[in-house]
Amino acid sequence: METEELYTTYKPLLFALAYRMLGSVMDAEDIVQEAFVSLEKKPLDHVQHVKAYLCKIVTNRCIDQLKSARQRRETYVGPWLPEPFVTDGDILGSGEDPVRQYEVKESLSTAYLLLLQQLSWTERAVFLLREALQFDYSEIAEIVGKSSANCRQIFHRAKRSISGNANQKVAARGKTTALVEQFITAILNGNVDKLMHVLSEDATLYTDGGGKVRAARRPIFGSERICRFFTGIVSTIPANFSYRLCLVNGGPGIAAYVGGDPFACLSFRFGNGTISDIYIVVNPEKLQHLNDTMGIRSVERET
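Structure tokens predicted for RNA polymerase sigma factor SigJ (303 residues):
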């Protein structure tokens, strides 16, 4: 198989692995690109399983990246959230090409990505290769350099540590999309009662500014405090504010713009017919790829 054909075949899978490992779209894309560049420089005559070989390259590069970023993560200002993976097109996912559908399917909710961060680097790699990408233990052993029996133990240990926190079901997306629409409309209209209605009583708000822009440095707990937060900032929203509903990490979310430039990205966790967690990324370094403004909705101001 030529490198170009291998790239087309395996890029979605490798991106899914790297993004889940790192929680960064740009770093995942760079690592996948580097993996294929290194592949061009090495003859494949003695490589029996190209897919496993590429996954091994990507996994090792991800672990190296995590090690080098460890100190930065420890000194990160405020809550750390994954870089949002935004998919354009119909928010319900209809009419998308097969590659786009695969990428959406293989992305994960923000809540799940945060759970993965609790695992060690090796646990994360083994868990993702087995649970998300359906590798055999023998293949995983070759990729991470451990025995099949050890990989089996690592997987079950990792799965126990994040059990009970399954990703949001796609079947519920229609209802959750309606919740997101009600949420943003209530905020922009200053409708506190409506906002309280869509939030669960014990909802939590996380904002990631990374020390680059103003953001809450601690999570905000409870629907009443979250409502006060949003009512406090709604008057500061610029006149050239706009937004679009989109898929963020495979679920309904919001990309916000000021003057056409990315300003914030919101994703959510849902439970019992309400919004249970809100994740807002305003760190500009994590919004650089949100430059597509198709489908944006400008906000009409009352006079």
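The two ends are 63 Å apart (CA to CA).
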